[in-house]
User: What shape does this take?
Amino acid sequence: MLIWYLESYYRLDRREAEDSVCDKGNDKGIDGIWVNDDDETIVVFQSKLVESPKKTIGDAGLRPFAGLLSHAR
Assistant: This one.
């Protein structure tokens, strides 16, 4: 899903989108990173796909991600 998003909204080609995805264990919720050289910015992505309408995501995954971003500023 994240690769599709990067291709569709950030207009990255397939290889660049795949290279931006870095989802691993103990990654503090980071699923992708993209460096925009033109704007000199780093964009950090978190994605979650829930296929059951009965499940909710909650904020458990967002807390470590938000904590990581607060250190980056």
